[in-house]
């Protein structure tokens, strides 16, 4: 049985996923990567021992799983160039490109293919990401398992049943790291306003974000309860939380995530 995986695009995300597969014990010779940029291609071969190719058509030869890891803007011509190979090989297609729908991918590749569309986020590059996954009806249990194994190198995975929810995934976790970065920026700024040096405010704010994120993910206690536990009656935290609530913090977050989802729908439509 042939179980080669072809990566079309050998950039940052592909590199993370390939590193994860090798760490999980997959033989490097079963990974084939198309990457047009010579230094990137050579580095992948040197670092992981995978088979590398300049052109996508060479990399997909004989591979029964194809992972598309190119920028969304070039996805259509790249898929169309591989349509005849896809129709003869009928691979499992996995895409990590933001905003490109499973229907678009399937159509650009000539139709009637199992497709998994995934939406990772930037912490994936540290193995601390989260990826939303959507499989079309043609994907079998083994295809889903393979996709989960692949994306687990990037962090956690969440299956969604309805592809329309992918824009909400993008709005929560895809764009989400930037919301936390904004909060960190604002906390540093406020610390300086309250008299701290910039380096002191930065260390205090950044380590607080890290520590809070670890408590959220490692303690099995939900966010509201963790917040209640550190909010003593009439204390300093309560003063801050009441100020956030009075300023409409929750509805502002709702509006921001809604705006991101609406923009995701518009951008997907523009790809057609
Ligand atoms: N980085 C993230 O954190 C992240 C998070 C979520 C989703 N994603 C998605 O992941 C995808 C890849 O992102 P990335 O950050 O890995 O991008 P990247 O570093 O730019 O990697 C893409 C690579 O594919 C190459 N490429 C372009 N056309 C090709 C072709 N015809 N055949 C083979 N390779 C080709 C590009 O070469 P050139 O530079 O010459 O074009 C580039 O080296 C994107 O669709 C993005 O939406 C990334």
List the helices and strands and how they pair.
Blueprint lengths: L4 E4 L3 H12 L7 E4 L3 H11 L2 E3 L2 H4 L5 E4 L3 H10 L1 H7 L2 E4 L6 H7 L6 E5 L9 E7 L5 H11 L3 E5 L6 H9 L1 H18 L4 H21 L4 H7 L6 H11 L2 H22 L2
This protein binds NADP nicotinamide-adenine-dinucleotide phosphate (NAP).
NADP nicotinamide-adenine-dinucleotide phosphate (NAP) binds next to α1 and α4.
How would you describe the overall organization of this protein?
- There is one protein chain.
- This protein has 272 residues and is α/β, with parallel strands linked by helices.
- The chain has helices spanning 12-23, 38-48, 56-59, 72-81, 83-89, 102-108, 141-151, 166-174, 176-193, 198-218, 223-229, 236-246, 249-270; strands at residues 5-8, 31-34, 51-53, 65-68, 92-95, 115-119, 129-135, 155-159.
- It has 2 domains: 5-166, NAD(P)-binding Rossmann-like Domain (Rossmann fold, 3-Layer(aba) Sandwich), CATH 3.40.50; 174-268, ProC C-terminal domain-like fold, CATH 1.10.3730.10.
- The chain is built from 13 helices and 8 strands.
- It has an 8-stranded mixed beta sheet, with helices on both faces.
- Helix 6 (102-108) links the parallel strand 5 (92-95) and strand 6 (115-119).
- The longest helix has 22 residues, at 249-270.
- The relative contact order is 0.09.
- The protein binds NADP nicotinamide-adenine-dinucleotide phosphate.
- NADP nicotinamide-adenine-dinucleotide phosphate (NAP) binds next to helix 1 and helix 4.
